[in-house]
């Protein structure tokens, strides 16, 4: 029995809908697909990504500007300069953006430029950060810790909820196990369980789960089939040249093909993937609750 007073289905019987923009919501019949590079590297890179993905059924962009890296010598992200790039493509292409927040001191600037703040796996139990995000007025994408149980994951969400922010989306991104052929082990059972235990939207990150680009598409399909409300997938104009997570990055073309190939899988579970959102296109209202 998980003692999550606010996150539990018994607290709120209906599915929580988390609004990313007027047109994009998590938890309804429409799936939300988030695409983009692991890290923002340059203005040109994000322009190319946004241009391509805005003509595809991809509803939001990702790109880290503060990167949690294993090595202190690895690229740590573009910081504020990267935030400005995100803000530019966001308004030029009319696509909401999601980016990672690593510390309390970054919250204000990120919230001023992005539509959703991501808490990475390594910070899932950074309780002071979670409490501070409870006071933020932006939705939070909470990723499961590398070795967190389902209960710990739900209780981390509870911290944000109980500190005042109801807009939390959970993200299963694989957990550590003994086999390193795949980077992590995607726990689809957790996706099904979280959908049953909580009223929060649940999405899946197949990229960090498998760590190899050729495994991303089949796993993404399985995630949708088992009830995920969306996906966050890494892609890059020149995948092999990605400064971080190159091995798992899809090309932009493969990303678009993958998203299109998800449509029949979504239909099989009574969900759908919306049309493009780009500038000049008719806005489609996406924020319907699932039947
Ligand atoms: C990321 O999304 O680039 C990332 C660092 O993910 P995770 O926190 O799941 O490892
Ligand atoms: Mn990454």
Structure description:
The chain has 291 residues and is an alpha/beta fold. The chain has a single domain, classed as TIM Barrel, CATH 3.20.20.70. The protein is 33% helix and 15% strand. It is built from ten helices and twelve strands. Strands 3, 4, 5, 6, 7, 8, 9, 10, 11 and 12 form a ten-stranded parallel β-sheet that branches. α6 (188-197) links the parallel β8 and β9 (202-204). α1 packs parallel to α2 (80-93) and α4 packs across α5 (150-162). The two termini are 27 Å apart. It binds phosphoenolpyruvate and manganese (II) ion.
List its salient traits:
291 residues; alpha/beta; TIM Barrel; ten-stranded parallel beta sheet; two-stranded antiparallel ribbon; 12 strands; binds phosphoenolpyruvate; binds manganese (II) ion
> Radius of gyration from the CA trace?
17 Å
Distinct ligand kinds: phosphoenolpyruvate, manganese (II) ion
Assign an overall shape: globular
The number of domains is 1
Distance between the termini: 27 Å
Q: The CATH topology, please?
A: TIM Barrel
**Strand portion, in percent?**
15-25%
- Secondary structure: helix percent: 25-40%
β-strand number: 12
The biggest beta sheet reads: 10 strands, parallel
- The succession of helices and strands, N to C, reads EEEHEHEHEHEHEHEHHEEHHE
Mean pLDDT: 94
Task: Specify the CATH architecture.
Answer: Alpha-Beta Barrel
Number of helices: 10
Structural class: alpha/beta
């Amino acid at each position: 029995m998980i003692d999550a007073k606010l996150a539990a289905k018994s607290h709120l019987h209906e599915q929580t809908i988390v609004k990313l923009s007027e047109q994009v919501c998590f938890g309804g019949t429409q799936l939300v697909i988030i695409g983009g590079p692991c890290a923002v590297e340059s203005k040109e890179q994000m322009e190319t990504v946004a241009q391509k993905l805005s003509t595809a059924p991809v509803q939001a962009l990702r790109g880290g500007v503060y990167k949690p890296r294993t090595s202190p010598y690895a690229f740590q992200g573009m910081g504020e300069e990267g935030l400005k790039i995100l803000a530019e493509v966001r308004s030029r292409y009319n696509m909401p953006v999601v980016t990672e927040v690593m510390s309390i001191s970054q919250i204000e600037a990120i919230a001023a430029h992005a539509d959703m703040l991501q808490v990475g796996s390594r910070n899932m139990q950074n309780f002071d950060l979670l409490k501070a995000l409870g006071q933020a007025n932006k939705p939070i994408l909470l990723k499961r810790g590398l070795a967190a149980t389902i209960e710990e994951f739900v209780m981390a969400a509870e911290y944000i909820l109980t500190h005042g922010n109801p807009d939390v989306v959970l993200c299963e991104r694989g957990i550590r196990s003994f086999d390193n052929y795949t980077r992590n082990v995607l726990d689809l059972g957790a996706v099904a369980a979280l959908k049953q235990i909580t009223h929060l939207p649940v999405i899946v990150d197949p990229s960090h789960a498998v760590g190899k680009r050729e495994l991303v598409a089949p796993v993404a399909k399985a995630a949708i089939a088992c009830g995920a409300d969306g996906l966050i997938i890494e892609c890059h104009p020149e995948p092999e040249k990605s400064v971080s997570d190159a091995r798992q990055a899809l090309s932009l073309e493969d990303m678009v093909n993958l998203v299109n190939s998800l449509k029949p899988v979504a239909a099989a579970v009574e969900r759908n993937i919306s049309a493009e959102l780009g500038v000049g296109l008719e806005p489609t209202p996406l924020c319907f609750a699932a039947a």
